[in-house]
């Protein structure tokens, strides 16, 4: 159990909520003078404006929104405020992007929160629609009908936070004891005009809730009665719920809006409504621009934006390349920005653009006294990534790292192009780029164009369908879907030892045989006759399962059942009568379809179903003979420091008598108790690690313990139902992809337009099923992800151990009738050394030797062919690469 003293344990708010409210208001006269200098205009002295910081803040927001609207209009995204036919005729659009915004209004000075939705229409045009939505969170109150008192208290206490409205909602609380009887909880819903007000209210409530939860741990039946007589209703506030859901995610969930889908957009007097068009599935065609920059650089150094210049920008939109020759770098950038404004791309693709191309362009733009945001609407956000409101920035390198499954050393653009697109792009030594700009500009331009083309087709073939298919499921914009991630810290104990980490024993991986196995080389088999007897005994049921479950047919529809049964039976008997065999093998990849999701659905495994004996004891369904508590084993593994509890306490007392440097160099020293929780944990772990190394001669010990989990079969199955729904939808899309593949084959070869449309549908449905597969396989990993809303190590452990048991059971049967080679609960992939170095000789060795495993017609001749190449590379090692050029040795 975590000992972290955190009132909001397990919350994601640290990732989503950044409080940047300024409380030290500047002198308004200086503030106004600065604004006058920046905007080259005089504003009249107004005491109300000068002394109202909220109004000053709203002016800034209003100006930012106006700048964004101006850029959006230049790029073709005018706001739809009133539709045709007095707003009753909708405008159809494909949603490509969405961003939170502030809607300026005369009714409320700070403005309303809303979301800008960016659409592409059917005729190739574009527009945006702004949906106003009140942000909210819930306040959880202790049992006892205290909602009215707490609400009345909050109306006074949160007066400065400008709460828009209070209301009551009834929710099902899965943590409520005995909630299976239908017990529900009443929550107070606080709605706000904008996010800033919500954060202000949360900041006011957080200290009170933290204090209440600390007191709650020591509260018993006597102290609880004392609470009844307390006049301060704030003690009844137990927690706040759903405060950490990002605003645009909240709106998308509540209004059921997703990027990548078609909508009929109704707009009447700035009031907007969306209705999904479920008949229209095919994606719209956004304008995609992929670009790559070439810069000057000093010999043997990386490019530096402070001194180096951009000498070429290659970008691909569609069709043939056109060359623009400009006199200097400033005009190159101006031409690039001008062309972006002309073609109005809605997706810009780069390769590692977040960390090289965009920062370099921005710095050089600033050097020439231009503003990249004013030019094309792109700027760096607080996460260091380059984004804009109207246009999606797809950094293909992010996709390569997360979704391509390529090894670390093969994630450069050249290697990715070779692996994914099947051709070798033009290569050029970085040291030759600047000299070639003077001497061989044609070769340099070919290289630069090659990178832009590779990025364009990598995006269009892999990244585009995959990311936008994910967007139809996940309520995030494409930029966020491409770049998601998380992490946290915890301190725990195991049997009196400080626990360094705890987890569960994962999937089962076993390599049983090594060697060359080919279907054209005879191999020795030894069949177990008793295994054949078992197969014969289950043969009728196995064939019936194949017909009814796997193929969805009825037994009555099969006309030759007896014939097939006899044929299989005679084959099995022949194996039984001749158990020792030498023959050419068939190599099978046995895969359990959607194993982890099916384990979860069949056992109703979900985080909230993991119960303790205390939970069962308090439940009304806890009766003799009950079958709602399925008990399954899982293997817990912990790594802990060998120091005992008394030694831990001794070390902690020693630290409490020491002083530590201040948080800043100019601040006074701090005692141990004045350190933050994370700093205390780090100091203790470091001191115990040193102590264990010195006294026990080892830093950590590990232990595996088999534990039993209780899975409630009556629990609200929201998580299991979601998994099942994703699985079924994935099968549906998989089936549709097969249907459209069949349609492509039936379309006449001269009907180019129809074939292209059919191929697009194949790619669409294939991408949709892949997106569902990725998320489906993430439901299992999610529950062990640090910071996840539904966290359960037990559930992950049960899922893994059950999967490992299934694999081992399959192995036990297969090894009696064949030769199992390798087991893995994840997946089986081709062999490749996983390395972080860029040794070209390793790549060359692999490419040379793999193809030779197909040589020869016996194992001896196969190994002789492989040995020839192996000897050559052994000579390279013996001579330390003396006969190789540098480019053959290092990439």
TrEMBL record:
GO terms for cellular component: epsilon DNA polymerase complex. It is an enzyme of class 2 (transferase). It is found in: Nucleus. One of its GO terms (molecular function) is DNA binding. Gene3D superfamilies: DNA polymerase family B, C-terminal domain, DNA Polymerase, chain B, domain 1, Helix hairpin bin, Palm domain of DNA polymerase, Ribonuclease H-like superfamily/Ribonuclease H. It holds the Pfam family DNA_pol_B_exo1. Residues 25-43 have a biased composition (Low complexity). Its main location: nucleus. It comes from the Eukaryota. Residues 239-319, 322-416 form the DNA-directed DNA polymerase family B exonuclease domain. Residues 753-817 form the DNA-directed DNA polymerase family B multifunctional domain. Residues 835-891 form the DNA polymerase epsilon ,catalytic subunit A thumb domain. Residues 1-20, 25-53 are annotated as: Disordered. Keywords: 4Fe-4S, DNA replication, DNA-binding, DNA-directed DNA polymerase, Exonuclease, Hydrolase, Iron, Iron-sulfur, Metal-binding, Nuclease, Nucleotidyltransferase, Nucleus, Transferase, Zinc, Zinc-finger. It catalyses: DNA(n) + a 2'-deoxyribonucleoside 5'-triphosphate = DNA(n+1) + diphosphate. Its cofactor is [4Fe-4S] cluster. Its EC number is 2.7.7.7. InterPro entries: DNA-dir_DNA_pol_B, DNA-dir_DNA_pol_B_exonuc, DNA-dir_DNA_pol_B_multi_dom, DNA/RNA_pol_sf, DNA_pol_B_thumb, DNA_pol_palm_dom_sf, POL2, POL2_thumb. GO terms for biological process: base-excision repair, gap-filling; DNA replication proofreading; leading strand elongation; mitotic cell cycle; nucleotide-excision repair, DNA gap filling. Belongs to the DNA polymerase type-B family. PANTHER family: DNA POLYMERASE EPSILON CATALYTIC SUBUNIT A (PTHR10670:SF0). DNA polymerase II participates in chromosomal DNA replication. This is DNA polymerase epsilon catalytic subunit. It comes from Candida albicans (Yeast).
